[in-house]
Amino acid sequence: MDSPMILPVILAGGSGERLWPLSRTAYPKQFLTLLGADNSLFQTTIQRLPTDSKFLAPLIVCHEEYRFIVAEQLRQVNRSSSGIILEPHAKNTAPAIALAAQWAQTHHPDSILLVLPADHLIEDTALFISTVQQATAVVSQPDLVTFGIKITKPETGYGYIEVGEDHKVVRFIEKPNLAIAQTFMNNSAYLWNSGMFMFTPKAFLDELLQYQPDIMADCEYAVAECKQDLDFIRPTLPKYKQCRSLSIDYAVMEHTQKAKVFTLENPWSDIGNWQAVWEQAAKDNMGNCISGDVVTYNSSNCLIDSRERLVTTINVHDLVIIETSDAILIANKNQSQDLKFIVTELKSRNHLAATEHRRVMRPWGWYDSVSKGPGFQVKLISVQPGKSLSLQTHQYRSEHWVVVKGTAKIVRDTEVFILRENESTFIPVGVKHQLSNFGTEDLGIIEVQSGSYLGEDDIVRYADEHGRATVSTVENA
Predict the structure, then answer these.
(1) Cα(first)–Cα(last) distance of the chain, in Å?
(2) Domains with residue ranges and CATH for the chain
(3) CA 10 to the chain's CA centroid
(4) Cα dihedral across residues 94, 95, 100, 101: positive or negative
(5) Pairing with 462, which of 174, 179, 287, 352 sits 20 to 30 Å away (CA)?
(6) What b/e sequence results for 27-52 when a residue is b if at least 16 CB atoms lie within 10 Å of its CB, and e otherwise?
């Protein structure tokens, strides 16, 4: 009898605030390139998966705001998916996995789900896949497998698992203090809790029904009434909105009698803070991990990442210095877990940098707000070849476009015309308009906005190739 197919489920919905200012709610860490890598953590997770006959294309679960980032990053590495489930609300891992299991129960009922966070660093892919394949023999029974990581240091930022005979879970342990973590390190019965799982859709849903029947019911209805738009799977909103937010550990794994553990020997990190990034990164002879335009003198054991400007250091040690277009972080590397207090304070001030970058990703490319003042805003807009912005109007602002790179197709009211480099046009308030990349290279536009209100919600869409809903213009801006 053939072994069941493995359906990877990639959880890509985390907000990743522990790596601020690079990671923000609108563009969290799983989509960032770190450690000098060419690909993001999400893309690396996807590329870790075989494309042979034993593995189905992965099923992605993410917040609906990340749908175009996920689709674009899949395109960049030339990988497909079995579908992209869009959570209308972030509800933690138990409901996210329940959505995936419900969908798989209908489309791949005989599969084994391999649940993977999108933001982990796992070295030695061959060893990882070998361990996964060994675990399938257990998963073919009605067991829920979790993967434990061999402890290499007394880590207080991870949860732990106590393991008994025959791979059985004795208990899950919350993040311990240092003294307890040190005792765990010297005892082979304890492993780090990786947050990775394997089980059949039915096995997980049976346990969810037993221990959290309300979550089971909400997710079952949300998937049964879901809508599919190309690769996007949209659970119905009302039921999922009322669903309780709960982790898979609290919801199922800490209650079930069917939990088993397989040990991953791989070097592993969840890249949970800047200290972890420094530990995993290549370093120079002074122990510095440096990225971007950086010059140091007599500085050691620092993590320095420059994205926009020259960064220089003199006689500093054990620092994290992260420079972006709109924020700079300077912190003691060994205290970077306290970054949460900065993010909390920024949110209390409603500071945009708490959640968004100055450069904002869109399904057609991106824009960067390079200057802003009373009544005006200047943006640099980049549109990918063949892509278009929506056909739209604005109630409160006019726009002046100057092409600085590529060839643009312009719709302005009843006119349709082409603009090339150093050519421009004006879009008055209330005029229906659309911008498209008519060429084979990225289109660069300087957009100068002027008006009494310049918010992104001042827009009415009449047509959109990316499937975004019409947005009503603001009424009382």
Answers:
(1) 65
(2) 6-269 (3.90.550.10), 274-344 (no CATH), 359-463 (2.60.120.10)
(3) 10
(4) positive
(5) 352
(6) bbbbbbebeeeeebbbbbbbeebeee
State whether residue 476 is helix, strand or coil.
coil
Characterize 278-302 residue by residue with b for buried, 16 or more Cβ atoms within 10 angstroms of its Cβ, and e for exposed: bebbeeeeeebbbbeebebeebbbb
Work out the angle at residue 118's Cα, subtended by the Cα atoms of residues 112 and 120, and round it to the nearest 5 degrees: 105
Give me 131's structure tokens.
């361990």
353: exposed, middle or buried (C-beta count within 10 Å: 0-12, 13-18, 19+)?
Answer: middle
- Tell me the pLDDT tens digit for each residue of 266-296: 888 888 899 999 998 999 999 999 999 999 9
User: Cβ distance 281 to 35 under 8 Å?
Assistant: yes
User: How far apart are the C-alpha atoms of 438 and 380, rounded to whole Å?
Assistant: 18
CA–CA separation, 132 and 112 (whole Å): 11
Dihedral class, residue 326 (left if φ above 0, else alpha if ψ from -120 to 50, else beta): alpha
Tell me the average pLDDT across 201-219: 95
Return left, alpha or beta for 38; rule: phi > 0 is left, psi -120 to 50 is alpha, else beta.
Answer: alpha
Look at the block and give the residue holding tokens 């949110």: 347
Q: What residues have CB less than 8 Å from 17, skipping those under 6 apart?
A: 23, 24, 25, 28, 339, 340, 343
Two tokens at 238? Answer: 């009302």
